[in-house]
């Protein structure tokens, strides 16, 4: 259990945050959703990482309408776990689903969140 506690008390250093200076997951939001249950937090984050990867594949293969719908689903899931950069990038695609630059930015945000989650789950 101590390893789990250490994982969620990530130190403030460049390896644990993005250029914005904050980790890709808002632990306060995640804790609200899971009522502070650390085991549930890990499970929810792992589910989110799988969903995000699957949704990115859908977005990259989708036409404009389907892309916007997939981005909307991803935005909701990201907001639920506190992945605010993923949520913002998905919201931008909702507004302009045909913009491939936005799709690339969403891919980068998803990758950043996924790598962060994988580090937490070690």
From TrEMBL:
Q: Which UniProt keywords apply?
A: Two-component regulatory system
Q: Among its keywords, does the record have Transmembrane helix?
A: no
Q: One Pfam match, by short name?
A: Hpt
One Gene Ontology BP term is: phosphorelay signal transduction system
The protein's superkingdom reads Bacteria
Ranges for the HPt domain? 43-107
User: For this protein, what is any one GO molecular function term?
Assistant: protein kinase activity
Please report the name of this protein according to its UniProt entry: HPt domain-containing protein
Q: Which species is the source of this protein?
A: Sinorhizobium fredii (strain HH103)
């Amino acid at each position: 259990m101590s390893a789990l506690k250490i994982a969620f008390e990530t130190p403030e250093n460049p390896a644990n945050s993005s250029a914005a200076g904050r980790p890709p997951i808002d632990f306060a939001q995640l804790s609200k959703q899971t009522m502070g249950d650390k085991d549930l937090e890990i499970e929810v984050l792992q589910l989110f990482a799988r969903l995000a990867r699957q949704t990115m594949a859908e977005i990259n293969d989708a036409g404009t309408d389907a892309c916007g719908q997939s981005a909307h689903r991803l935005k909701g899931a990201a907001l639920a776990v506190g992945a605010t950069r993923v949520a913002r990038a998905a919201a931008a695609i909702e507004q302009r689903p045909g913009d491939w630059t936005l799709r690339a930015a969403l891919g980068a945000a998803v990758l950043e969140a996924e790598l962060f989650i994988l580090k937490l789950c070690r």
